[in-house]
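Quick one, tokens below:
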């Protein structure tokens, strides 16, 4: 049995053995980052070869996303994984958010860019990111995570932001989709990109926005999983915002249908998401080690 101790503040410490335990899923950051960084560099350097079958609009968006990836993977994914491996719970929760961004982004690469030289790399990053995210969340004990937060954690403001973002963007996407369903024509953004459907509509409405609303509700109710999922989703959304800003800049520079105003708005929202995520994670007791909140084999999760 793993030895547990309680410090003077009532926080659970799992003992030296637990503190040395590094979840296997952190190691997947290395192949994910190598493939993503290499693929994005190749996409930028050999755009005609990689994105030559896309419309000018979709090719520009792809290059813009590649540029954002060159920031997200070496600076965020690898650095956060390193800090988490050293025991930082804050870094671990933020790292899961970058994994969510990675799975989201590479689902689009794999499904919505024509078959080409980087196809297997895109599929690998998508799969590794999805499995790493699932595994990373599966080994965390949400009850211990919640116990590591102080009573001053900004639950209501953080949860309210998640619910607000989820609801507003869901209404925005539905407002683009419903008129097109009645007119029998695809939304303008779909026609400009030359795609059968908008992958952002699919991923947001099916997965990301419901998850944001659910995390916000759980957090506002004080449920344990809310403390885990809220920073994960906020970080994912903030990194996605970086990608949107980057592709909007590329679209505008190339004279495509890109709006710098939209880019600025999303950038401001992304900064707000970072600020709220950091403020929330600062309420987590810095003495808590990752080993304190990682479950042993056979333990179940509640919350």
């Amino acid at each position: 049995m793993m030895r547990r101790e309680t410090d003077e503040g009532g926080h659970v410490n799992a003992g030296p053995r637990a503190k040395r335990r590094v979840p296997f899923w952190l190691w997947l950051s290395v192949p994910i980052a190598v493939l993503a960084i290499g693929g994005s560099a190749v996409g930028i350097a050999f755009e005609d070869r990689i994105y030559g079958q896309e419309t000018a609009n979709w090719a520009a968006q792809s290059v813009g996303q590649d540029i954002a990836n060159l920031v997200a993977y070496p600076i965020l994914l690898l650095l956060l994984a390193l800090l988490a491996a050293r025991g930082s719970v804050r870094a671990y929760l933020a790292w899961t958010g970058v994994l969510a961004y990675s799975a989201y982004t590479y689902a689009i690469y794999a499904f919505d860019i024509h078959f080409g030289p980087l196809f297997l790399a895109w599929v690998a990053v998508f799969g590794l990111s999805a499995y790493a995210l699932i595994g990373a969340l599966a080994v965390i004990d949400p009850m211990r995570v919640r116990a590591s937060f102080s009573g001053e954690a900004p639950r209501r403001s953080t949860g309210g932001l998640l619910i607000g973002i989820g609801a507003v963007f869901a209404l925005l996407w539905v407002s683009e989709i419903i008129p097109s369903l009645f007119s029998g024509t695809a939304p303008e953004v779909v026609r400009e990109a030359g795609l059968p459907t908008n992958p952002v509509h699919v991923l947001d409405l099916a997965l990301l926005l419901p998850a944001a609303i659910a995390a916000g509700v759980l957090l506002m109710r004080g449920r344990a999983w809310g403390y885990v999922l809220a920073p994960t989703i906020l970080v994912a959304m903030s990194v996605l915002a970086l990608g949107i800003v980057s592709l909007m800049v590329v679209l505008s520079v190339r004279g495509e249908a890109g709006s710098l105003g939209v880019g600025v708005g999303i950038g401001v929202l992304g900064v707000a998401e970072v600020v709220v995520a950091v403020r929330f994670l600062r309420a987590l007791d810095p003495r808590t080690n990752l080993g304190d909140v990682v479950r042993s084999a056979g333990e179940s999760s509640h919350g």
